[in-house]
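Lab meeting tomorrow. Please check the following:
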Amino acid sequence: MSDSITSVNDQNFKSEVTDYKGFVLVDFWAEWCGPCKSLMPRVEQLAKDKKDKIKICKFNIDEGEEVPGKYGIQSIPTLIIFRDGREIVRKIGTVNDLSSWVDDKIN
């Protein structure tokens, strides 16, 4: 995983996401998920291109149940954008032009 991406789990989700002031994109994913793997290069590029506008986090659903349960994650990949700790939008499945999707939501 890129240095520009923060790995989050049940233990650090509050400090890294819900207590964060600003925009955060959380990618809920798993190693065994093909669509998640195909999305990964776009998430990594987004983390490099938008590092001054949005914090990028990845949550491996196989490493925690509390947060995915709280946010009703039933399908992966699921992308959720938070602003100041509150969910503002989510997308289930892959996003071809991730950069434009994010720009549309945070600008």
